[in-house]
Amino acid sequence: MRNHSIYNFQKLMKDLYYNRDSKRGIDKCLLWLQSEQGELIDAYMEGHTGKMEEEVADILAWLCSVCNLLGIDLETAAWKKYPQNCPKCMSNPCNCENLN
Ligand SMILES: [Zn+2]
């Protein structure tokens, strides 16, 4: 089964968690998203691949929760900003001079 689009994942997160996320509120959901990013860094520092996989999944799940609360279609927003090229230099692969 490979129809695992970001759109479908965001819809799954809405079905599973929208009621709870609405009660929790956007501020707490944003804190959870930030917290999961810290946990990914911890897993990376430990060199723990299994944990890293879990944390990236958590990050995507919380990002979807935030997008659901904000009424943002994540997949559409991502493709809109990054259609095929780097949005700054318009090249693929990116040719931007600055690595920052
Ligand atoms: Zn670029």
Overview in brief:
The protein has 100 residues and is mainly α.
Arithmetic mean of pLDDT: 95
User: What is the CA–CA distance across the termini?
Assistant: 38 Å
CATH level-four homologous superfamily name:
MazG-like
CATH class: Mainly Alpha
Q: Could you list the spans in which at least 5 consecutive residues all have pLDDT below 50?
A: none
Proportion of residues in β-strands: under 5%
Give the key terms:
100 residues, Helix Hairpins, 4 helices, 70% helix, binds zinc ion
Could you walk me through the main structural features you see in this protein, from its secondary elements to its overall organization?
By secondary structure, the chain is mostly helical. It has one domain (6-81): MazG-like (Helix Hairpins), CATH 1.10.287.1080. Helix content is 70%, strand content 0%. The protein contains 4 helices and no strands. The chain has helices spanning 6-24, 26-46, 49-70, 74-81. The longest helix is centred in the middle third of the chain and has 22 residues, at 49-70. The N and C termini lie far apart (38 Å). The model has no long low-confidence stretch (mean pLDDT 95). The chain binds zinc ion. The site of zinc ion has 7 residues, from loops.
